[in-house]
Amino acid sequence: MPSHKVVATATFFLLLGLVSLTSVSGAPALSIWPRWLTHDPDSSVIVDHAGWDLILQRYVNDAHPSGINRFKYVRVSPKDRQVLKDYLQKMQTVAVSGLTRGEQKAYWINLYNALTVDVILDHYPVKSIRDIDISPGIFSNGPWDAKLLTVEGEKISLNDIEHRILRPIWQDNRVHYAVNCASLGCPNLQPLSFTSQNLDILLEKAARDFINHPRGVSFINSGLQVSSIYFWFQEDFGASENGVIQHLRKYLSPENLKKLDAMQKKIRHQYDWSLNE
Predict the structure, then answer these.
(1) What's the pTM value of the predicted model, to 2 decimals?
(2) Number of structural domains the chain divides into
(3) Residue 122 is part of which domain span?
């Protein structure tokens, strides 16, 4: 019969192996939160995102020569820091279940992005969002599982918003181009908030911009290299490499489509977690 020490050691390495598998395959599993399925298709309520718009307009540099939007964390004034805090507080008073689907989608995207910026500012300076280990659990990495907000009485984390609400409810893979993880490898943080009116336009633009930038898709030595997003969330892009390629074809420029057709279709992936400042 194995000793308690042997069992404890074996259990530790089993858990370590499971964590390693999770980190290789990517994001948390998709799991719908039924609590947020309720909506009101007849609602006329429009959520006010003016506070978030102010922050975006003042601190997002969407003209950086790299083609990657940068956030000026170091320049955020104490006054605007409070504007962001006030916006997040206000969003926690919204009766989300009484909104239309479009208003809800814009709400959750903006809330995710605003909360991410707030978390970075709370811990700034940092080199990467992954250095902010405030999630619960011995194997925590980053802030994504920390319950940082309360909406309609429910404590909510960044992972809840992305993987239990946005992805499973809307099943729109363009959401990956909207939520921003404060990293250079991530799709751009847009310089304006999402609304029910501009959702489709902004999502299409975000997808096209990312896919036609080298961090999204690049052609190296007759091979195709894509963002790790397409590896982590392959189930959202046809659940196969071919599904990913078909998705990319929808948004690639004519020039890049020609490059794709001339390339071997074996896919490599990469991601840069450096802070998007």
Answers:
(1) 0.90
(2) 1
(3) 27-197
